[in-house]
Amino acid sequence: MVKKNFFPCFPLILWNSLLRWCGSQIYVPAHPLVKHWVAVLRNESTPPPVFKSAMAELGRILIYEASRDWLVTMTGQVQTPCGVADVEFVDPREPIKVVPILRAGLVLVEHVASVLPATQTYHLGFVRDEETLQPTLYLNKLPEKLPEHARVLVADPMLATGGTMIAAIEELIKRGIDHRLMRVVAAVAAPPALKKLSEKFPGLKVYAGIIDPELNDKGYIVPGLGDAGDRSFAT
Ligand code: URA
Question: Which domain of life is it from (predicted)?
Answer without folding.
Answer: Eukaryota
